[in-house]
Amino acid sequence: MTSGTVDLSEALPADGRRAAPDYPIDGAAPQIAQQPRTREEIANLLASATEAGLAVVPQGNRTALDLGRPIDRYDVALDMRGLDGIVDYEPADMTVQVEAGMTLRALRAHLAEHGQYLPADPPPGDDVTIGGLLATARPGAWRGHMPAARDLVIGMEVALADGSLVRSGGRVVKNVSGYDLHRLHTGALGTLGVIVEASFKLVPLPPATRSFAVRRPSVRDAARLAIELRDAALPTRALSVVAPEAAARLGLPDDAHVLLELAGYESALEAATSRVRDVTEHSGGGLDDAPPGAWDLLRDLAGSPDGVVLRLGVPATRIAATIEAARGLRGTAWGHLAAGSVVIHAPAIDVTSVRVLRRNVEAEGGFLVVESGPPALRAVIDPLGTATRDLVGALKRQFDPTGTLSPGRWEVGL
Amino acid sequence: MTNEALIRDLRDALGDAHVLHLPEDLIAYEYDATIERARPDAVVFPGSTADVSAAVRIANEHDVPVVPRGSGTGLAGGAVPVLGGVVVAMTRMRRIVELNAANRIAVVEPGVINLDLQAACEPHGLRYAPDPSSQRICTIGGNVGTNAGGPHTLAHGSTVNHVLGVEVVLADGTATWLGGRQADVPGPDLRGVFCGSEGTLGIVTQICVALTPLPHEVRTMLAIFDSVEAASEAVSAIISGGVVPVAVEMLDQEIIRIVEPQMHVGYPLDAGAVLLLEVEGLPEAVAADAASVVAACEEAGARELRVAESAEEREGLWEGRKGGIGAIGASSPNFYILDGVVPRTRLPEVMSQVNALADEYGFRCANIFHAGDGNLHPNIMFNELDEGATERVLELGGEIMRVCVEAGGSITGEHGIGLEKRSYMEWIFSDADLDSMERLRLGFGAGERFNPCKVLPTGHGCASGHAAEMRGHLATPGVYI
Ligand SMILES: Cc1cc2nc3c(=O)[nH]c(=O)nc-3n(C[C@H](O)[C@H](O)[C@H](O)COP(=O)(O)OP(=O)(O)OC[C@H]3O[C@@H](n4cnc5c(N)ncnc54)[C@H](O)[C@@H]3O)c2cc1C
Ligand SMILES: Cc1cc2nc3c(=O)[nH]c(=O)nc-3n(C[C@H](O)[C@H](O)[C@H](O)COP(=O)(O)OP(=O)(O)OC[C@H]3O[C@@H](n4cnc5c(N)ncnc54)[C@H](O)[C@@H]3O)c2cc1C
Predict the structure, then answer these.
(1) Domain assignment of residue B224, yes or no
(2) Of B293, B326, B359, which residue sits at a domain end?
(3) Under a CB-based contact definition with an 8 Å cutoff, are residues B400 and B263 in contact?
(4) Tell me: the pLDDT tens digits for A135-149?
(5) Residue B470 within any structural domain of the chain
(6) Residues B233 and B317 in one domain
(7) B167/A contact by beta carbon, under 8 A
(8) Residue A102 contacts residue A122 (beta carbons within 8 Å)
(9) How far apart are CA A9 and CA A133, in angstroms?
(10) How far is A321 from chain B (nearest CA, A)?
(11) Element (H, E) at A95
């Protein structure tokens, strides 16, 4: 699994060394683990590793390292959590520049003091690092109602495999100077460069929020109601269809549900609540407050370490059918209407079923990602199903010609 | 002659009617909304993705450049065929392929005019949010090319935030989808990085966009100030007050005095500056947002606040804003549109510096711009027949860009780098940064012949030096709508 026995200790400050066995990926530990404290240390590490032909895997809070194919080689764990500060925060500009190892939780706390936030709610929770958040770029329940993190990035600094530190974008909220390389690194799983720092535009924290759960006799019924609620012009921040199995995990009765979160002024929420009541009563009732923590529980479920987690991109009108298909596979499933995503968590799913699901969604212009699952499954299924494989390969050869960064994430040797 | 062989191959592939090659026919395709000119060898009007692939392959076989083009309203020279070659004009591909109201997406060909898409969405209670001021004539493909913004970018984001996927023909003639019909397709965000690449990475042949619901209620207000500085203070105060209106546009006295006599939309002639403000949403939220915006304006010294009482009044206020640039064209022999961006808290001082610089150089300067985003558009008016005027205007433009960069800003907020600003790229990016941008271009397989001399300051056979490039921005009247 490792490339050789080159010793990088000369090039790396001793106080940044960490115990390599603490950094396993798919069961294998690296030779070296390092937690740099400056961007220059990161650049040096990458340059030395590239020269020595070693494979480096950047990592944040280590919650999504099984996303993508199992990597081919793993020599150096690059722990990004040593770079965890705010570089610049201008509340009046509503922009922030942060280091990649900072957790979303820590950032949220800073921003909340000024009534602002970065509206991202990725699974499995706020302990993700900003670098990991961007490198994985997965949507949560807010997606589609709020701009996604990938849409709020206005600038980035990245360390490339050859040790160069490069920037794109800037610190202004609107900017078309040069190529938006920060978008290229978004979703790239750290295979094209290591995100060192990112700048975001922010949005105001809503003055108030309110969440509802509406009980429905069937998933189809719930999905129909969700579309009615979507079309009812509400100050919605999240709108999801939850299958009975998932509802039970949230402390709801074992039935299909619609979960709805409204965000805005207290006065606007009052008015919106009565509109929600009208819509639900008109089509059968069942409106209640959502149980406390329901959204967080849903995020936990998406981030659960056991079994298999799939994410499917499907149009709003196909959410019910997709959830039903998942139930047929004994999966716990739910779907976010605006994001057009269905998440399926199952104790196990065989390769054939995943392929059938993928073929069905792809026929409708959608996609399927194996977000998490045993290496054996991820090795045969192409977890990311990337349609643009040739282009990704060509870009990989430009940005990381020696295959230093997480080789094999896209396919063997890539 | 190679040229004849090229024309013959193009005509064989696309049909005689869809290939222009006579000098008199090519003239209109020598420039965009700038006056930089260069003659292409041919202009083709593909009717399908296959046509685009064929045209690109033929250009490759003849080793001539390829330059994508929409309506040619670009303000950075991005569609100018600097080194000749084949201009691929997308205006014939203008079908709305699908408008799916239930799933809130539309699939369109790149030649669809922005406003035509808006009009098609409206009956469904939906809209396509990006609304550049040129929306009556610019194409969705061109908007993807420049990642166009507009007055409502402040709250709704620019083009990239509304594009789910694009089908593109790459430099080798192969077609592929980047992104798709759903958001958050796995892998590097190739869709995102393509938006705003100014026709240098490929040619867009189809676009899937996200549609959003029309707002329940819209309130448009005009806040009247005695000075640009006071209006700029109000912009900072509004944003930092925790309300992000959907639009915050500024017009200074110079532009008001140009627009109002021509358009009669109700801007007060004696105002130092006005802010055109818009909030939207549910009635309760609109009321609360409007109250907070009004309070911030009053605190910053607004002389008067007017609320548009009717749809006509609202449209009038917007008409004046969107037609503003055209009005300048009718009142000055030449003008130079600048596009810079600064952190919005720096607006008051930057606006003072811009106006002081224009005074120092002795030019009239009209400001009409997206203040909420900190996106400036000083328009410098001059007559190119005046001895040395052109050079001085270019120099002034450069100084204003410097002011933006020094304030922590950037050299273009929405018009792009194109041909015009390539040499300024070094002001904001290091050699290593630019090298990594070059890697992107190479990764997409876009070599020296694919829309050459655009975006990056490098490139063989491209004229460089400010004056040669900047001349492109000296717009003449009549170039505009
Ligand atoms: C079971 C499970 C499934 C998940 N599925 C997904 C999913 O499909 N899609 C998704 O987007 N998120 C997914 N997440 C959740 C999520 O959004 C991640 O947890 C989070 O974004 C990663 O943050 P982290 O700090 O833990 O990163 P890590 O887990 O440490 O790293 C995640 C990935 O990002 C790379 N990376 C980390 N830091 C950097 C950096 N600074 N620069 C470059 N690359 C870096 C890593 O190499 C790795 O490929 C999942 C989480 C779990 C537990
Ligand atoms: C009066 C006026 C007002 C304006 N207001 C705004 C504004 O508010 N906001 C704003 O952002 N811009 C504005 N612009 C600039 C311009 O309208 C935009 O840049 C617009 O997006 C260009 O569209 P187009 O179809 O005219 O493209 P063109 O000018 O033909 O091309 C623009 C660029 O995109 C590339 N391109 C065009 N089509 C394609 C394609 N199918 N595939 C790949 N690349 C392609 C070209 O190569 C070129 O680099 C304004 C211009 C004018 C004249």
Answers:
(1) yes
(2) B326
(3) no
(4) 998 888 898 888 877
(5) no
(6) yes
(7) no
(8) no
(9) 29
(10) 15
(11) strand A95-99
Q: Give Dmax (Cα) for chain B.
A: 71
Residue nearest to atom 5 of ligand 1 (CA): A371
**Is B341 in contact with A174 (Cβ distance < 8 A)?**
yes
Query: Rounded mean pLDDT of chain B?
Result: 91
Residue A391 within a domain:
no
Name the percent of chain B in helix, strand, coil, to the closest 5: 40, 20, 40
Could you tell me which of A413, A404, A396, A412 has the C-alpha nearest to residue A185?
A: A396
B456: chain A residues, CB-CB within 8 Å:
178
Q: Which ligand is nearest to the CA of B29?
A: 2
Contact A187 B412 (CB under 8 A): no
- What does the pLDDT read at residue B477? 35
**Beta-carbon count within 10 A of A277 CB:** 13
The verdict on B257 and B336 lying in the same domain is no
Ligand 2: atom nearest CA of B141 is 41
Question: How far, in Å, CA of A274 to CA of B39, rounded?
Answer: 63
Distance from CA of A271 to the nearest CA of B (A): 8
**Residue A133 covered by a domain:** yes
- CA-CA distance, A334 to A339, in Å (whole number)? 12
Find chain A residues with C-beta within 8 A of B442's C-beta: 398
User: pTM, whole model, 2 decimals?
Assistant: 0.94
Q: Do B189 and A187 touch (CB under 8 A)?
A: yes
Where helices occur in A137-212 by DSSP H, the ranges are 149-152, 181-185
Mean pLDDT calculated for residue range A359-383: 91
CATH code: domain of residue A193: 3.30.465.10
How many Å apart are CA A36 and CA A23, to the nearest integer?
15
Domain that holds residue A106: 83-204
> Would the CB of A190 count as within 6 Å of ligand 1?
yes
CA distance B414 to chain A (A): 6
d(CA A352, CA A382): 13
**Interatomic CA distance for residues B274 and B267, integer angstroms:** 8
Treating both helix axes as pointing N-terminal to C-terminal, what angle do B324-331 and B253-263 enclose, rounded to 10 degrees? Answer: 90
Considering the domain boundaries, does residue A183 fall inside one?
yes
Residue A178 with chain B: CB contacts under 8 Å? 417, 425, 428-429, 433-434, 437, 455-456
Closest CA to B125 of B218, B4, B214: B214
pLDDT of residue B476: 40
The 10 Å Cβ neighbour count of residue A127 is 15
Block residue for tokens 């969405």: B121
Give tens-digit pLDDT for B385-419. Answer: 999 998 899 899 999 999 999 999 999 999 999 98
Any domain includes B205: yes
Contact A135 CB / ligand 1 (< 6 Å): yes
Domain range for residue B436? Answer: 431-465
How many helices (H) and strands (E) in chain A? Answer: 13, 19
The answer to whether the CB of A249 falls within 8 A of the CB of A332 is: yes
Residues B104 and B205 reside in one and the same domain: yes
Yes or no: say if B126 and B101 are a contact pair by the CB < 8 Å rule. yes
Are residues B390 and B402 in contact, defined by beta-carbon separation less than 8 angstroms?
no
A393 touches chain B (CB under 8 A): no
